[in-house]
Design brief:
The complex is a heterotrimer of chains A (about 350), B (about 300) and C (about 350).
Chain A: H1 2-19, E1 30-35, H2 45-59, E2 63-68, H3 75-86, E3 91-94, H4 100-109, E4 114-118, E5 127-132, H5 134-148, E6 153-158, H6 163-179, E7 184-189, H7 196-208, E8 213-217, H8 222-230, E9 234-237, E10 251-257, H9 260-271, E11 279-282, E12 288-290, H10 299-313, E13 323-324, E14 330-332, E15 353-354
Parallel strand pairs in A: 1-2, 1-3, 3-4, 4-5, 5-11, 6-7, 6-8, 7-15, 8-9, 9-10
Antiparallel strand pairs in A: 10-12, 13-14
Helix pairs in contact in A: 2-9, 3-4, 5-6, 5-10, 7-8
Chain B: H1 5-32, H2 40-58, H3 61-85, H4 90-109, E1 122-123, H5 126-129, H6 132-135, E2 142-143, H7 144-162, H8 164-174, H9 176-181, H10 186-212, H11 224-234, H12 239-261, H13 268-287, H14 290-293
Helix pairs in contact in B: 1-7, 1-10, 1-11, 1-12, 2-3, 2-4, 2-10, 2-11, 3-4, 3-10, 7-8, 7-12, 8-10, 11-12, 11-13, 12-13
Chain C: H1 7-12, H2 14-39, H3 44-56, H4 59-83, H5 92-109, H6 115-142, H7 148-168, H8 202-219, H9 221-231, H10 233-238, H11 243-270, H12 281-291, H13 296-320, H14 325-341
The chains are: A alpha/beta (about 350), B mainly alpha (about 300), C mainly alpha (about 350).
């Protein structure tokens, strides 16, 4: 029996020695805590935060980052954040939408710890919200897709039908229609932000049903882009500017987050003791950037896209009424607009989008 | 050109069903020898992560496939040590293997999350590729694992039902006492069944990470292992019927996505339920005669004598 | 029970033997995990000190252990009760979700009822949700159509989808488009919490459930009937015990307890219905029950142990930079040790 025990323990020790990596931290000026709903090596959403904060830690002396991956959008998140605070974290980034309520509860209990949440809602003295307003940035993406498509059917894979995703799809379709009135966008929902097998299936289904340009709003664009590329389709990437390496032929363009300048400001404000909980929504040119164009994109299309992008950066929004939704009713009255802070509230698809909201 | 819905679903069914078929075949062999491995999900994850990491580290997807098969086989042998040699409760051991698979696969795959691999090469015979209704689809454009899926099923069927080894393995699952009395060692046979079953399970995981998605993410099998366990029963422990089962389940998943791509107005969540409900319904339909076809000694521990 | 007149007899008495056995497992596990930490380049003593500091020695940490334990005890009972008949319920996840769903239905459809009606109503609905969800596999098994292991497992995947459908659809809170969830439940439906922590009345419910379970199994005629069926179903049938009815009832009641766990999570912790209610409480509950041999005190102890283990995982991730999968490895290791070491009786399954 003791031999068996020793055998089992020895086995596990061996397993660990072969697979685990060590890590340690020292005593710094500012400890930043970050929690991710998945892995930060997702080539997408989570990685954008990880990279930006790593840059901040590199550029600002005395700043360390402690990270926790696979923190579910549940009460687990509270525990993890509390744990980080006990470790000395003074600035916390709960990076997934669903961490919001739990982060707010922790913020109430620790008024001397500061939070920045990518999402919406009220701000408090120690709780700020922010997001890169990707929605308006999808408009020039739509312009690119509308020009590049030959079948006039564009595909869009989204993880879950939340307001921000619907807004992205709507701007995309509006951009496409502005240069190609016949363009339609078909939406497929995978049901999760990171279900790789479903993403592959969704991309295949869209290509099967006639789409030749595919865009996405999921955590990581890798699987979809690779699937589309293998079948000769064109892709528009999201979340990571590096994704174009995955589609040497079919890459059109894409969007990515550039959080570093904003995070730098926040970290400095915490160190200087002048943090203010604000709602900061920045779009194209600040928190959101456009990826370089792929080789297949002709010069005149590039010009159209760049022009559209410039218009957005100067304040143009495609979300100006009157806009009809895809069931025929008026979704936005004439003259009304939707501003950056309201991007989470979409619950309709614009006319031309094929898909059901719920 | 828009693919007709049927062809789109068929295409998706084959792609999605490949890993299901391998997993089901592996578990069929194991259950035929009298052992239930609830930890199949863990085996699949081990195969997927080891396969992907090896492919990313060596730059060669084939090494990944081989490593995945070996890892799956070894993992099942570890499971075998628990249930055959130490005579532990099979269900609890299975769940232990599931947790083991969760943990190990995450650790093995962690350095490689986000890595880009070339993946398994695909091949389509040119005479098929010329057909118009095939050209724009995914049909017949498969990697080696998918092409070999049905032949492997036939091989497993042949091995179980037409060889002496297969007869002995099945006998262990029915009446281990008789096998013991005839001079063969049931434990050795069970280990053999477990290692070959684990090999197939590893291949199932490898297909997911090296071909279908070309990526690794924790828990990426999303319950396929448990579906395969149900499919074993669905196919009445018969490798050839497993082909139909894998196609059916793969098809249900593909149907949901293809319908959305066509603009159908059904909620994706409701559509997502169909594979599981379908499996239940089919199990119900088979239900009456189930008792007659399960290996009689399935799940029981053998102590070297009858009962 | 032998009279403990001498210390030798005391040492041999069942309670002490069991306690020593459990303590022995703990010691082995602690030592083995320390070895693992060393192999990973970590400092085991610091790791244990950190865990102790942030979970046991810390009021908030300790309260979180109670919070984690609450659903675990309930799902463990949901496995233990049917196991008395030899039934295997791995459907705790799904039953938990359906309990949460039905309880939410009550809170959302009858928001104006006063607390003294609404709270018990919501609890009853939670029990019913899980109960019905488990009764389905019960009926299938009683009709000898489908093994309950498989059917409970499959239904685990359907239940969260039903919840998702409702929170993205009919029950979607207006203005929460960014993160779909139901509207906040009326105060009257929420479980009160204690000591300014997240410990909620669900803990009392879980202790009560444990008590009820113990009473049923040890003190009632039903308990004897169940053990008879579990021992030899055919013989029990011939004795006149309605085995088929028992199968359905046992699974339904077991499922009901898991449903209460779900009710506790939405009414005590979240205050609304949302996705991601359970990080695998159903499966962990199965393991808790199995490790405890279905004994009520053992369940309490094991649930506490599991709460510490999962808490350790979080702590170690933050303090030592170890990935969360460490917890899974730790769980697997404990199970391996227990499984490989248990003395088995012939004929056991």
């Amino acid at each position: 029996m003791t031999r068996t025990l020793g055998f089992i323990i020895g086995f596990f020790v061996l397993v660990f020695w072969l697979t685990a990596k060590p890590a340690f931290a020292d005593s710094p000026r500012l400890i930043i805590g970050v929690i991710y709903v998945g892995s930060f090596n997702d080539y997408g959403y989570n990685k954008s935060f990880h990279d930006a904060l790593a840059q901040v830690a590199k550029d600002l002396p005395g700043v360390t980052v402690i990270e926790a991956e696979n923190v579910a959008e549940s009460s687990d998140a509270e525990r993890v954040m509390e744990g980080m605070i006990q470790q000395g974290a003074k600035l916390i980034f709960p990076t997934s939408f669903g961490h919001k309520d739990f982060a707010r509860k922790v913020a109430k209990r620790h008024r001397d710890v500061f939070f920045e949440h990518p999402g919406d809602g009220d701000t408090e003295s120690n709780f700020g919200v922010f997001f890169g307003s990707t929605q308006t940035a999808w408009y020039p993406m739509g312009v690119a897709a509308g020009k590049m498509t030959k079948s006039n059917k564009l595909g869009f894979v989204i993880g879950m039908p939340i307001g921000y995703a619907l807004g992205n799809v709507n701007a995309f379709e509006l951009g496409a229609k502005s240069v190609n009135p016949k363009a339609q966008t078909v939406v497929v929902v995978t049901g999760g932000w990171s279900d790789k097998a479903k993403e592959a299936g969704a991309a295949n289904a869209l290509l099967d049903q006639g789409c030749d340009v595919v865009a996405m709003h999921v955590d990581s664009p890798a699987t979809i882009i690779q699937t589309v590329e293998a079948r000769g389709g064109m892709s528009i990437g999201f979340q990571s500017l590096e994704a174009r390496a995955l589609a040497p032929t079919g890459w059109v363009t894409g969007l990515g987050f550039t959080w570093t300048p904003f995070f730098m400001d926040v970290a400095k404000s915490v160190i200087a003791g002048r943090f203010q909980g604000q709602a900061v929504y920045q779009g194209l040119g600040q928190m959101v950037a456009i990826a370089p164009f792929g080789p297949a994109v002709p010069a005149e299309v590039q010009k159209l896209v760049t022009n559209a992008a410039n218009r957005v950066m100067k304040g143009f929004t495609p979300f100006t009424g009157p806009l009809t939704d895809n069931t025929g009713s008026l979704a936005l009255p004439p003259g009304a607009t939707i501003n950056n802070a309201q991007m989470g509230n979409f619950d309709w698809y614009v006319d031309g989008v094929i898909g059901k909201v719920r | 050109m828009t693919t007709p819905l049927a062809l789109g679903v068929l295409g998706g069914a084959i792609l999605s069903g490949t890993s299901l078929l391998y997993a089901t075949l592996g578990e069929t062999i194991v259950e035929r020898s009298g052992i239930v491995n609830l930890g199949l999900e863990g085996i699949l994850l081990i195969g997927a992560s080891v396969g992907f990491s090896t492919a990313a580290a060596t730059g060669n997807a084939w090494f990944g496939v081989m490593a995945a098969a070996m890892a799956g086989g070894l993992a099942n042998v570890l499971f075998g040590w628990l249930v055959v040699t130490r005579r532990a409760n099979q269900l609890a051991s299975g769940l232990a293997m599931m947790f083991f698979g969760f943990g190990i696969s995450a650790l093995v795959g962690a350095p490689y999350v986000g890595a880009v691999i070339v993946g398994l090469p695909k091949w389509r015979p040119s005479w098929l590729g010329g057909l118009p209704w095939v050209q724009s689809t995914t049909l017949f454009d498969y990697d080696a694992l998918t092409w070999l899926a049905v032949p492997v099923a036939i091989l497993v069927w042949w091995a179980l039902f037409w060889t002496r080894w297969g007869l002995a393995v099945r006998a262990v699952g029915e009446r281990p006492g008789a096998v013991f009395a005839s001079g063969r060692n049931p434990s050795v046979l069970q280990y053999q069944a477990l290692s070959s079953g684990g090999l197939l399970g590893g291949l199932a995981g490898a297909h997911l990470s090296l071909s279908l998605t070309k990526t690794w993410a924790e828990y990426m099998t999303a319950g396929r292992g448990f579906i395969a366990i149900a499919l074993v029963i669905f196919s009445k422990w018969h490798p050839l019927r497993a082909i139909a089962g894998a196609l059916l389940f793969g098809g249900a998943e593909a149907l949901q996505l293809q319908l959305q791509a066509r603009g159908s107005a059904v909620s994706p969540f409701l559509l997502d339920m169909t594979p599981y409900l379908l499996t239940l319904l089919v199990l119900l339909a088979w239900g009456g005669s189930r008792r007659l076809v399960a290996p009689a000694s399935l799940g029981r521990t053998f102590y070297g004598s009858d009962g | 029970m032998p009279e403990a007149r001498t210390t030798a007899a005391f040492r041999k008495s069942p309670i002490v033997r069991v306690a020593l056995h459990d303590a022995g497992i703990c010691a082995v596990v602690l030592a083995a995990f320390a070895a693992i930490l060393l192999a990973a380049g970590k400092h085991p003593l610091k790791a244990y000190a950190d865990t102790f500091r942030y979970t046991l020695a810390n009021a908030y940490g300790f309260s979180e252990l109670i919070v984690r334990m609450t659903p675990l005890v309930l799902t463990a009972v949901s496995v233990a009760l049917p196991s008395r008949l030899g039934l295997i319920n791995v459907g705790g996840e799904g039953q938990l979700y359906m309990g949460a769903w039905m309880a939410s239905a009550g809170a959302l459809l009858a928001p104006d009822l006063p607390t003294w009606i609404l709270l018990p109503l919501v609890a009853v609905l939670g029990f019913m949700g899980g109960g019905v969800w488990a009764a389905i596999p019960g009926l299938l098994r009683a009709g000898k159509l489908v093994s309950e292991t498989i059917s409970t497992l499959l239904l685990n995947y359907v239940a969260p989808l039903i919840v998702s459908y409702f929170i993205f659809g009919p029950w979607r809170a207006p203005g929460s488009s960014a993160y779909p969830q139901s509207p906040v439940f009326p105060e009257a439906a929420l479980l009160p919490s204690f000591f300014n922590t997240r410990i909620h009345a669900g803990f009392i419910i879980s202790l009560a459930a444990l008590l009820v379970y113990w009473l049923i199994v040890e003190k009632t005629r039903w308990g004897i009937d169940m053990r008879a069926i579990g021992g030899n179903a055919e013989a029990a049938q011939r004795l006149g015990i309605p085995v088929a009815k028992w199968i359905v009832v046992a699974l339904a009641v077991g499922g009901g307890f898991a449903g209460l766990a779900g009710m506790g999570e939405v009414m005590g912790i979240h205050g609304r219905l949302r996705q991601g209610l359970s990080p695998g409480y159903g499966f962990t509950g199965f393991l808790v029950s199995w490790l405890a041999g279905g004994r009520p005190l053992g369940i309490l102890f094991m649930a506490f142990l599991f709460a510490i283990i999962t808490s350790t995982g979080d702590t170690l991730q933050i303090t030592q930079g170890l990935p969360y999968s460490v917890v899974h490895i730790l769980l697997a290791m404990i199970l391996f040790i227990v499984l490989a070491g248990r003395p088995v009786r012939a004929g056991a399954i």
